[in-house]
Design brief:
The chain is α/β, with parallel strands linked by helices. It has 20 helices and 15 strands. The longest helix has 35 residues.
Length: 531
Amino acid sequence: MQIKDLLELDLLAEAGIEIVAGSDHLNREVRWVHTGEIADIAQYLSGGEALLTAATGLGRQPEQLRRYVRELAAAGAACVIIELGRGFRNVPDEMVAEAESRDLVLVTLEHEVPFAAVTRKAHTELISSAHSALEKAIAIDDALNVLILEGGSLSAMMELLAERLDNPVILEDGARRVLDYGRSASSVTPLLRNWQAHSRQGHTRNPEAMVSEVDASPRCMWSTITVKGEEWGRLHVIELDTPLDDAARLALGRAVASIALYLMAERDAALSDAAEHSLVRTLTRADGFSGQEFLTRAGGLGVDLDEELFMIVVGPPEGTAGTDPEAGAGELRRALRAARWPAVVGSVDGLLTAVVTSRPNADLARMIEEVVGGLAGGSYADPFVGVSRPCTVAQLPQAQSEARTAHRLGPSSSKARIHFYDGLVLYRLLSPLGTGPTLANFVEDELKPLIEHDERHNSELLQTLDAYLRSNGNKIVTARSLQLQRRSVYYRLDRIEELLGGSVDDPELRVRLYVALRGREMLMAQTGSQA
């Protein structure tokens, strides 16, 4: 029951209520209703009480009245309801001023009321409300435990709590970084952008209560998650949509225990890293990508991405196995943080995937080389890197595709470690054709005689043609690159011309053959075959 609910009881509402102080705090919870006339009654309160009094034993000195209000506020009284007439005709200004300064709700009743009847009615409502709150909290906890037993993720747990409590629920770690939350990004974006300020302001733990409260704007209930005797993080419920009540308090207290058990199962030993993995994987989500939500979640993790962005994909050459993406992601994440380069890192399909901010006037290739150079001795030995074009957050899914294309096809164009999508001009031209039959048919039409000859005779005419075209028709360079005698190169080129029915010195044929060879590389890379 909140103060405003108590004041709506018929016996009080009909007595002529006036709120003379603390009108901004009527949503404060009332846990019990007391009556009393003695000046030092505060010592008998435990917090959350509404005090009914006629103020007959308070004295008349200003300091006595201020001390009375001050002690009640310090004891955690929810509100003081003074019946006028017997003690005061009007509440003294000193009491009103002290109540305002202490955020204590002070209410007056113009007419006499039977206090016994008010407390009986209020206690009946409180007990009934407490029973309902407990039932609701137990139902939420049961649903949460079922979700855990079914293997649900922390994200699913946050969503369930947010839905049942009809308010945003936010999970933070010990460094006050948001790891996950329940509720749509649009409803919590302003809060998450300034989460550190909210989390550090007024969040002083009450050692006598499992759930603490912050009576600010927005109002917040929170509880500490303790795992194996150590403080792991905190779970917050924010009052944005529905007033926080006893059901929220009870449910929160039970939820932190369930989450602690979940964490003790060590399913998410590195939860912050897992949160980044989950965030990066939203780039491939089929049901739509929200750039605003991506920025919000990154901000909650302490990563500011409000700049021009790049996608970077890191992995071994296409087809190489034996890498550990989880360990590799951790190594890349640590390298980027050591370089003070804002980024979120995860793994997608075994490839390390990072969203990084642009660095104006910086040598991007050199910076990436320095970061990934440290991976060579770890889980990703001799990695290749694909880099997208600069993009906005809304363009990240397309940028991811560009970075993956650069990683896959870049090694075919050069032996460099880092490959920029911008530099793959011919591949970018051919890439759209690779999704249908057009490119495959073109490759088959141009290279079929050579492909069939190589398969039948285990020869290397395709390799020889490629080396010849890459050397711009220089037969000496071709022989050197293939480690052959020039006589062997001459013989192979003659055989190629015989099979193709044209001269490899014909400029148009050269262009067609070179494009067909690059198209074949693309098709082979897509299927995981060796060219």
